[in-house]
Amino acid sequence: MDLDTLRFGNFASLGTAIDDWSQVVKHLETLEKDAREGLKGLADKASWSGVNATVSREFITKTAGEFTDAHTQATTIYNILKDTHDELVGYHDQLVETISRGLKKNLTVMDTGNGSFTVTMNIHPDRAAKGTTVPDHSQQDVDELCEDVKRLLTRATNSDDTASDALRAIADEAKYGFSGAAYEDRDSAAQALKDAEKYANLIKTKGDSMSPEEFDDLNRQLAGYKNDPLFQEKFATTLGPKGVLDFWADLSDPSDGGDLQRARLDQLGDFQKNLGLTLAGATRSVSPAMQQWEDSMVNLADDRIQTRGTQVYGFQLMSNLMRVGDYDDTFLDRYGNALVSTEKKMQIPDHYWNGMGGPPMPKMNFIGEDFGRDPMTGFMTALSNSPDAATAFFNETQPQDNAEWVLKDRPVFDDTPLNSHDGNQSREATGNALVAAATGVNPNDPHAVPVDHSAENRSVLDRSLKIISGTGDDFAPEMRDDMAKVLVNYGDEVHNTASSLADDPSDPRQLDRHQLLEVTKQVSRDQHAYGILNDGLNKEMVRDIYTDHPSDPKETLLRAGHTVGFLEEARYQALATDKEDPSWNAKWLYHGFGGAVNFIPVVGDAAQRGVDALAYQWQLDEQARINDDNARQNGEVFTARENQLQKLSDLWIDANPNHGDSNRYTLTSEINGAAFDGNARAQGLAGNQ
Q1: Relative to the CA of 15, which of 24, 112, 238, 346 has its CA 20 to 30 Å away?
Q2: Distance CA 48, CA 105 (A)
Q3: Burial status of residue 123 (CB atoms within 10 A of its CB: 0-12, 13-18, 19 or more)
Q4: Stated pTM of the model
Q5: pLDDT by residue (tens digit) across 154-170?
Q6: Residue 121's beta-bridge partner residues?
Q7: Maximum CA extent, the chain
Q8: pLDDT tens per residue, range 43-75
Q9: Which residue, 448, 416, 412, 452, is CA-closest to 431?
């Protein structure tokens, strides 16, 4: 900053701008409250259907969020401007006072341009007017005045520059709409940018050669800034995508002789999470530098990264850093398409990811048991944390059909060689991603609740039913419980389809009955998945009895019976398929299946009491199977689930007190008949008649 700029600057216009921003903050605070409590609050309480349940509600939610971000950004701008204004005015006052002190010693300060200045005598003694006494000064006085002025100009320049950097960074955070970056003053925003550069450069210059103490400091800083968008963007762009990959490759490879991995092995998992959260936050910035970062990362992902002892792929490295955090949906979509494309070109990707024919690949993951050699595990975990991105991925058919690849065609390998009794980690992660894609719910969020399905969510359900039913008994067992969660999340559609008397293309709720039966069979091959499915559909049948109002009330009773029969046929087929393994029946135990509660739509209080009672009766039926063989129930009366059917009949009577001439006996007989009919109809769908 030039001397005269600070000395003679008029800060009135900046003060006016601050006053204006103060008013903007107040107005936006009111609008934000109206949007949150009024617009979104009413939307949350409303009963939506059709297009309104998806497009309109989503638009309102996003719009309310924009008002929140607008208020946050305006507050941050106001805070930075006010902080900078107050500092610059203070430096101005100090400069004027410093120059005045110099004049008392016959010293004056003159601006020479470009931030430089000179200190000279104000009046040379030889040219002083006769009788004028010129104050004396020493060289020390000159030096001290120079230092004082220089210090003030440096501080003022830093104040002005850091404010500019922070404001530009905030503006770049969101291409459209507003940034959610919140700072109480300019110094905190400036410090975030400064620290981001400092620690990114530490990695660039030292990598895994940094000392354990430096590593500890780096880990603390990443954890402390995990919610700071300015830090995240600056850190990622300063380090660069190649820097990220090189660092994680070197840190993972213990063959280079460095002692950091040995000294901090027990902390690498936390560090992996903190680094992943930082990069995830960075991808949500739309600054030009970050967009270039994402482009480069996708391009580098199928490159081999050389360490001292081996070579690993960029996909393997980056995917392990994607296990935590909410990555940008567009980035995930591009990254996922590139990963599937690369794997299909490899044809046998499991060989490549295992480093067949080359030096052994290191363990690249320190979160969980798997070694991190399979990049699909980390990527699928990232998708499960971002339901919208997961939905887009599973619906993608160009340049390849992603869902068909990950659900049916993709070869897998054991990435947990130290545990031979576990399931396949990539398939476990893929199952979670499928849940997110079909339901719109993050399966990793214990506080998540069911959301309204979009047309895209329904498309994932339809496509996954087709693909999974096509795999038959080869469907991955690791995904059975996940598919059960999907089906109970669509309990209305599943119950409607299972109880249908014929295909009805005009019914938007109806699924493909043949596909549903095959998938239900595959789900039923796993006791826990079977429990999730039946527990969820018990809730749906009770909800239907209490809340649906068809022209003939008995429809809900008969539909419940048909669905029970459908489920029983699927169970029989599952047990017949695995008849050589008697452990399913022998180990039956009712678990409560709370793991699926986030995916089952809420029922009313009366219905919930009925659900609890029905669950107990169903449990009695299941326990009674333990000593039975797998023979099909072929009697005229359907006896496999007689306690369950009796309770459903009782609940129907409770929900329909004016049920005419029918009594408990006749109603129970009718639902038993419907169950037998549903059982036989399902046999016909399976070609078993």
Answers
A1: 112
A2: 80
A3: middle
A4: 0.77
A5: 888 777 777 777 777 66
A6: 107
A7: 133
A8: 554 444 444 444 445 555 555 555 556 656 666
A9: 412
